[in-house]
Amino acid sequence: MTDTRDLPSPERRRVLFGLGAAGAALAGGGLGCPMLAQANEGKVTEAPKSERTEDRHAYEGVHQAGIVTPRPAAGMVVAFDVLANDRADLERLFRTLDERIRFLTQGGPVENLDPKLPPPDSGILGPVVSPDNLTVTVSVGASLFDDRYGLEAVKPRRLSRMVGFPNDALEEDRCHGDLSLQFCSNTPDTNIHALRDIIKALPDLLFVRWKQEGSVPPQAPTKPGELAQNARNFLGFRDGSANPDSTDTQAMDRLVWVQPGSDEPAWAAHGSYQAVRVIRNFVERWDRTPLQEQESIFGRRKASGAPMQGGDEFTLPDYSNDPQGKLTRLDAHIRLANPRTPGSEANLILRRPFNYSNGVNKNGQLDMGLLFICYQADLEQGFITVQRRLNGEPLEEYLKPTGGGYFFTLPGVRDAEDFIGRALLLATPHSNTTT
Amino acid sequence: MKQTLLASMIALSALAAPAFAAAPAGLDLVQPISDYKIYVTEEVGKLVSETQAFTDAVKAGDLATAKKLYAPTRVHYEAIEPIAELFSDLDASIDSRVDDHEQGVTAEDFTGFHRIEYGLFDQNTTKGYEGFADQLVKDVKDLQARIDGLTFPPEKVVGGAAALLEEVAATKVTGEEDRYSHTDLYDFQGNVDGARKIVDLFRPQIEKQDKAFVAKVDKNFATVETILAKYKTKDGGFETYDKVKERDRKAMIGPVNTLAEDLSTLRGKLGLN
Amino acid sequence: MSNSAPRPPRLLRVAVAGSVVLMIAAGGLFYYAANVASEKRKAHAGQETVVTIHDHRCEPAALSVPAGKAAFRIVNASDRAVEWEILDGVLVLEERENIAPGMSQTINASLEPGQYAITCGLLSNPRGSLTVTATAESDARARARPSLTTFIGPLSEYRVYLSQQGSALVSAVANLSAAIDAGDLSKARELYAPARAAYQRIAGAAQRFAELNNAIDARADYYEKREQDPAFAGFHRLEFGLFAPAAQAGQSLAPVARQLLADVTSLKAQLLAQPIPPEQLVSMISRNLRSLAEHRFDGEEERYSHTDLNGFAANLEGTSKVVALMRPLVEKTAPQVQQRIDSARAALNDTLQGLRGEGQWPAYTQITQTQRQAIADRARDLAAALDGIDPALGLSAL
Q1: How far is Cα of residue C367 from the mean position of the Cα atoms in its chain?
Q2: How many CB atoms are located within 10 Å of the residue C221 CB?
Q3: Hey, are the CB atoms on A285 and B166 less than 8 Å from each other?
Q4: pLDDT (tens digit per residue) in A151-209
Q5: DSSP string of C188-240?
Q6: Beta carbons within 8 Å of C18's beta carbon, 6+ residues apart
Q7: What is residue A6's predicted lDDT score, i.e. its pLDDT?
Q8: Binning pLDDT at 50, 70 and 90, where does residue C318 land?
Q9: How far apart are CA A388 and CA A167, in angstroms?
Q10: Which residues lie closer than 8 Å to B145 by C-beta, 6 or more apart?
Q11: Domains of chain C and CATH, by start
């Protein structure tokens, strides 16, 4: 009979078991991470194994996929200038996007053409395209609602061209766009395959303006009853604690989705505002900052993700006993972003970021940071208000936003007759619109 | 009896000093912190008077004098950067670079030294820059008044040495600070001087904690200073940044990064947050 | 057959008897004292920690007590007299010297949470450790009281102030001395008050250096021969020479002025070299105000120039600087003390400014006894208000 005194404490046991589970997942191809699914015993050039290549999301729905969908390991935002000359071309653009995204997200064999012709598909996923958990989310920028396509009257009310905040160093050619596509899947290659497919399909209608890839580090699968942990960002802190619950449909209706009957144009119902920010982290400088200071800047413990008052990552921060900020500083990141005062619930946003790692700049310092993406029903009450509160925070010493933009994510595609962007086009009938 | 016992206790405890962070900071930091404020007050005083002379030349249309005065005036700002950047609105107005502004050179809120630098060295003119000159004088005087009223936070003073080296590592080693005049070496020296001042003021306290550390820091400073000195001109100024040989730039990066790493432990060593 | 020893002389017998009595008495006294100590120990028995010092170590070597009052019984089981100390870093918190071999002593200490060292007899013996754990009461006290680190800012600022005011004082006296050297006595008379104001702003700090301050600021009645005493120097000797009708012409003033310049230069150096502990920062200011309230209010300070109000206003400026520096700490911990200080300071300021008229300070001869008493009372109120800072912040306990 084992004496419980000899066993490690319950917390330790959980950690050990978790590590063991991760080890098991590594050893025998299991659930979770496609990349880490199997210890390499094959040859050098063999592809890593994944059992998730057939994961797929429905394309049709009230809302587009890729917003309340859980994040897979690879993400990418690409912004485009729309080259369409007129409404007819704009419609062709949306219909073609619809067709391509349907195929890419559901998978299937690639068309075979005469080998004397360039192949229609890049072939990087092989002759049969697997969905690999792909979602492609289509959003439009304020500039699409200029005088080119007759859409001025139906621009979403709060959609604007992003204006830099005091700490920004925005590079013009890494910002804004007529259209944004957010690609998410299990593998960077799947996203790239989808991007190349779309670009090849629309050479005369789309110009790639900027693109940023990102990743989310996979973790060992959780056991039943355990909450899944949030992934860490490149500052080493968990990103997404205290995010609204994306599985809570009522909360999402309140916070993320534009509701029918709101003051937005009718076509915009079931869409959302998307704010993208490419935020460089000065990682060398961060890594030279005392741990205590890192934690006090963020307002959380680094290792556990718990708020300063204690608990674990999922404990909600509670500032009621700390009006002067002695425990959690008044200018700590999480406290500024959400002071949890009465009324601050109006400014909640759904964060869905990725970590990015680009190159190196001339002084040998790494260019990496956060591909920040968030969704909200009201861009002004959401991201813009929150960022204004954050202006001047101590964390800014380590951040430099350099790119991104504001977009409106289109409502979902209802059925086989519908196509992405149709609701928008129908909102302003035009002689050239076919339906 | 008690005196000598106390003295021997002190000696013993010095031997037993821990390798990690010290006990909370004591009042022996008062002297170096106030000496630092006296230093910063002197530097900002020089900044104000030299900025006045610089902007007078700009407003008088004296391009040659303005160009000559540009870099030596800035040195006083770069030396006190840890304190100056506590006032982020003034820091932006006085010292922001063009890539902090989306609209680039013509951005309305691109003001201060580098905006005037663009006029003087890229456009070769002082015409149209009178307003920016007036604003700069106003800003540095404002800075002087705010510094006078500021109780210097101890951790900002001690941490300032590391902050200055981060500046050097991030922007000075690549010559992107003064991209029109290429006078980055002046700024580089200013940052290094400011960091060195802080280390010197706190030298007795740091040595008490870790003598080997101080020796290592001194050595890295000396390496950087020796290379910088190679580019000094006869009148006490510096060559333009494009003259810096690639191998000298590389030779400075290692010590600069190491200094940033080492100086980032200063606050912990002195028991500050 | 041996003879029995001769009987000891009577005195010796008495002495022996006496010493026996003494020994019994001592024994009784010892017994009594030990009982009292034992009672005391029994009273503290629950909290008493016993530490036995052996030749080369103490036992136990690691102690732990809750914050607050603690009793330690140190038993010296070594063969030398030892001391026992509780050390906080290099500072001695509590100690007992000279515990004889075989004896024990009880030490009562009041301890805040933290990690301390205890000495274990010989200096060469390894030290023990004392962990004082926080309790609810100690947490409450700690939340209330600022730590030493929070004083670094205000004390640094004050040192910068002393540097600036010291420079201003040196330069004002230099101007005064130059005017006297040049024989321009009327200009010297004009420069007297500004130089006094520069001094009075930092008089509280200057008064910590007794000899130097006397050389600078001593008044004639400190000297046997008063104004005629050859040792009478400094500001008031200059004042006498410049303003008193009975004084001679200023030719003997030049060396006095030069000496004063040398002295204020030394003063500045001393002000910067000697650190001021937090509790003295406030107490030296309130002492200065009390001297105003008790002596200087009656015009004895500037008895020739009658520029007393100029000096009082400068004292208040110097006081206001300290109040401003301490404000963040005092407001946070004891807002009611801050309010009292603010209203007392405003009252003194109003009283002085009310006497000012068209920008110039009137000669003190024009200030009535009632007005002088009002100044004294306001100064006393402000001193008393400032005295509330130390207990509120626990400065003396730092």
Answers
A1: 34
A2: 13
A3: yes
A4: 999 999 999 999 999 999 999 899 999 999 999 999 999 999 999 999 999 999 999 99
A5: HHHHHHHHHHHHHHTHHHHTTSHHHHHHHH--GGGSTTGGG-TT--HHHHHHH
A6: none
A7: 43
A8: very high
A9: 11
A10: none
A11: 48-133 (2.60.40.420), 159-200+210-275 (1.20.1420.20), 277-398 (1.20.1420.20)
* Shortest Cα–Cα distance, B44 to chain C (Å): 15
> Which chain A residues contact residue B188 at CB under 8 A?
none
Strand order in the sheet with C68-76: C58-59, C48-53, C68-76, C104-111
User: B169: nearest CA in chain A?
Assistant: A363
| Among chain C residues, CA nearest to B30 | C156
CB burial of C25-55 (b: ≥16 within 10 Å; e: otherwise) equals eeeeeeeeeeeeeeeebeebeeebbebbbee
The pLDDT tens digits of the residues spanning B42-57 come to 999 999 999 999 999 9
- Cβ within 8 Å of residue C11, ≥6 positions away: none
Closest B-chain CA to C121: B5
pLDDT < 50 positions in chain B: 1-21
The helix/strand/coil state of C153 is: helix
Q: C48-53 and C68-76: which strand pairing?
A: parallel
The angle at the Cα of B160, spanning B155 to B163, to the nearest 5 degrees, equals 120
Q: Residue A309 burial (CB < 10 Å; 0-12/13-18/19+)? A: middle
Tokens of B110: 């691109």
Q: Distance of CA C337 to CAs B187, C154, C386, Å? A: 48, 18, 8
CB atoms within 10 A of CB A366: 16
A216 band by pLDDT with thresholds 50, 70 and 90: very high
| C87, C151, C159: residue with CB nearest B34 | C159
Interface of B with A in 153-172 (CB under 8 A): 162, 166, 169-171
Residues 188-227 in B contacting C (C-alpha not used; CB under 8 Å):
none
ipTM tops the 0.95 cut = no
Please, is C316 exposed, middle or buried when counting C-beta atoms within 10 Å of its C-beta (0-12, 13-18, 19+)? buried
Query: Do A164 and B102 lie within an 8 Å CB cutoff?
Result: yes
Say yes or no for a CB contact (<8 Å) between C163 and B34.
Answer: yes
Which residue of B lies nearest to A162 if distances are taken between CA atoms? B102
Mean pLDDT of A111-119: 88
Is-cis flag, bond preceding A109, omega within 30? no
| DSSP, residue by residue, A114-131 | -TTSPPSS--TT-SEE--
Q: Give the DSSP per-residue string, C168-197.
A: HHHHHHHHHHHHHHTT-HHHHHHHHHHHHH
